[in-house]
């Protein structure tokens, strides 16, 4: 890791080195982790205090495994190896990552928005990978812990980093931008999420726009021009954003859309005088937006239309994000990673395109603020109006979803807890069903997906 010596890291973190060894003074770290199980020789372990586990307990273990050094808030009583003492290990994690980012000769694409960050990241990475060596965010590593860890994973030969950046309160994106320092900022949409902290969609726009705070002033902003809030962004560092969307007024737009149901879609993507005939393998209209965002980024990196077309066709779904799973005689749409009203309706739209009997297993959506119950009821009404054959609602808030579905004549059932549904789920499903599974992450709906798979 370029210039990641103990002295440089300590300076970046405002820390003091103890138990230093002269022979290690110029050694550079080979990796940085917060999970002691991931330690390899030459790595640095950041000892953090979590809700359940205090990483300081594992300092002897990581030195036994060959750790180069430890960043900690409390020194071990004996000299086990070099320790960088800091006031706040989580802050030090960000500071060290920010230092490392600035040592790298790499361009960064930062992605934010209320919905679709992960799938957009996958599209952009797939397109760029047709020409460049790309490092991208893995899993849900998009917050103030995950983003630094993602940056620490960048290798010397990586040419572009595609970083997902997620927040739930004001000031958080400002801090993420300071670490990532993006050259290109992509904004997917402004929906209804994290309203407990961000109040309304205008608040969400302000919070997401903090991504510009530390971006490259010579860089580029790419936004969904069909989003009414993002359309109000007219100037960033003296440059107008590049817009994408279905509307022909956007710089990049799509038409001749062929909906192929669960097989995805085809569309013509217009980029000035360049026309891309895109085969989009992931289903749902929102995936066309993701493909347009990826095409916009590809143009910024001087990619040909052939490379952009190939990259779009090669994108793959991520578990928990509109991931299609064949489970015996059923098809599961695994979209259980997270949920808000906008993404719920998009997932229901997708389910509605499926052949045969359609079953929606929907759970609570969190952090929606004072109107949360009305928003749940509206989702239930929407599912019924879209003709979903069976709507199974799980959780305290989802009683409103059940009531909304029943109001519109939908066949629905409500379960207070997930385990109650799982106990009878196999009796409710039929051969040939297409089953959507979606809720906020803490509802642990991945267990429902596993239940369906294991009972086939």
UniProtKB/TrEMBL annotation:
Keywords: ATP-binding, Cell cycle, Cell division, Cell shape, Cell wall biogenesis/degradation, Cytoplasm, Ligase, Nucleotide-binding, Peptidoglycan synthesis
Record-listed E.C. numbers: 6.3.2.10
Statement: the UniProt record of this protein carries the keyword Ligase: yes
Top EC class, one word: ligase
UniProt catalytic activity: D-alanyl-D-alanine + UDP-N-acetyl-alpha-D-muramoyl-L-alanyl-gamma-D-glutamyl-meso-2,6-diaminopimelate + ATP = UDP-N-acetyl-alpha-D-muramoyl-L-alanyl-gamma-D-glutamyl-meso-2,6-diaminopimeloyl-D-alanyl-D-alanine + ADP + phosphate + H(+)
Biological-process GO terms, alphabetical: cell division; cell wall organization; peptidoglycan biosynthetic process; regulation of cell shape
GO molecular function terms noted in the UniProt entry: ATP binding; UDP-N-acetylmuramoyl-tripeptide-D-alanyl-D-alanine ligase activity
Pfam family, one: Mur_ligase_C
Domain (Mur ligase central): residue spans on this chain: 111-297
Source species, domain of life: Bacteria
Pathway the protein acts in: Cell wall biogenesis; peptidoglycan biosynthesis
Domain (Mur ligase N-terminal catalytic) ranges: 30-73
GO cellular component annotations of the record: cytoplasm
Family that this chain belongs to: Belongs to the MurCDEF family. MurF subfamily.
Function: Involved in cell wall formation. Catalyzes the final step in the synthesis of UDP-N-acetylmuramoyl-pentapeptide, the precursor of murein.
Record protein name field: UDP-N-acetylmuramoyl-tripeptide--D-alanyl-D-alanine ligase
Protein encoded by which gene: murF
